[in-house]
Amino acid sequence: MQFETIQLNEKRNVTLTVMAQDIGGEFRGVTARPAVLILPGGGYMFCSDREAEPVAMPYLKAGFQAFILRYSTGEHGHWPNPLEDYEQAMALIHARAEEWHVIPDQIAVIGFSAGGHLAGAAATMSVNRPNAAILGYAVLRADTAAEIGVTIPGIAELVDEKTCPCFLFATRTDSVVPIQNTLDMLNALNRAQTSFECHIYGYGPHGYSTGDPSLLGSGVMIPDRAQDWVDDSIVWLRDLFGVFGADGQAEPVCRAHVTDDAEAWLSLDCSVSRIFGNAEAQRMLTDLIAVMREKIVPFAPGMSFEEMMQAMSRMTLRQVLSERRIETDRFHELDEALRRIPNI
Amino acid sequence: MQFETIQLNEKRNVTLTVMAQDIGGEFRGVTARPAVLILPGGGYMFCSDREAEPVAMPYLKAGFQAFILRYSTGEHGHWPNPLEDYEQAMALIHARAEEWHVIPDQIAVIGFSAGGHLAGAAATMSVNRPNAAILGYAVLRADTAAEIGVTIPGIAELVDEKTCPCFLFATRTDSVVPIQNTLDMLNALNRAQTSFECHIYGYGPHGYSTGDPSLLGSGVMIPDRAQDWVDDSIVWLRDLFGVFGADGQAEPVCRAHVTDDAEAWLSLDCSVSRIFGNAEAQRMLTDLIAVMREKIVPFAPGMSFEEMMQAMSRMTLRQVLSERRIETDRFHELDEALRRIPNI
Amino acid sequence: MQFETIQLNEKRNVTLTVMAQDIGGEFRGVTARPAVLILPGGGYMFCSDREAEPVAMPYLKAGFQAFILRYSTGEHGHWPNPLEDYEQAMALIHARAEEWHVIPDQIAVIGFSAGGHLAGAAATMSVNRPNAAILGYAVLRADTAAEIGVTIPGIAELVDEKTCPCFLFATRTDSVVPIQNTLDMLNALNRAQTSFECHIYGYGPHGYSTGDPSLLGSGVMIPDRAQDWVDDSIVWLRDLFGVFGADGQAEPVCRAHVTDDAEAWLSLDCSVSRIFGNAEAQRMLTDLIAVMREKIVPFAPGMSFEEMMQAMSRMTLRQVLSERRIETDRFHELDEALRRIPNI
Amino acid sequence: MQFETIQLNEKRNVTLTVMAQDIGGEFRGVTARPAVLILPGGGYMFCSDREAEPVAMPYLKAGFQAFILRYSTGEHGHWPNPLEDYEQAMALIHARAEEWHVIPDQIAVIGFSAGGHLAGAAATMSVNRPNAAILGYAVLRADTAAEIGVTIPGIAELVDEKTCPCFLFATRTDSVVPIQNTLDMLNALNRAQTSFECHIYGYGPHGYSTGDPSLLGSGVMIPDRAQDWVDDSIVWLRDLFGVFGADGQAEPVCRAHVTDDAEAWLSLDCSVSRIFGNAEAQRMLTDLIAVMREKIVPFAPGMSFEEMMQAMSRMTLRQVLSERRIETDRFHELDEALRRIPNI
Question: In this predicted structure, what is the pLDDT of residue B304?
Answer without folding.
Answer: 86
